[in-house]
Amino acid sequence: MSLYLRSRLLWPNIINNFTCRYSTTAPDVIDQNDQVLVDDSDETLAREAEIQKKRNVSRLSNAHFNLINGRRPYETPKHLSHLTVKYNRKLYGKYGSESGVNPSLCWPTKQNIQETLEYESIAFPYTIREAMDAAAQKRLEEKNKIEQREIEIATKFAKLAQWKKELNDKIAKKAAEVELAKNKKERLVEEVRRHFGFTLDPRDERFQEMLAKREKEQKKLEKLAKREAKEKMMIAKLQQKNVEMK
Question: Which family does it belong to (predicted)?
Answer without folding.
Answer: Belongs to the mitochondrion-specific ribosomal protein mL64 family.
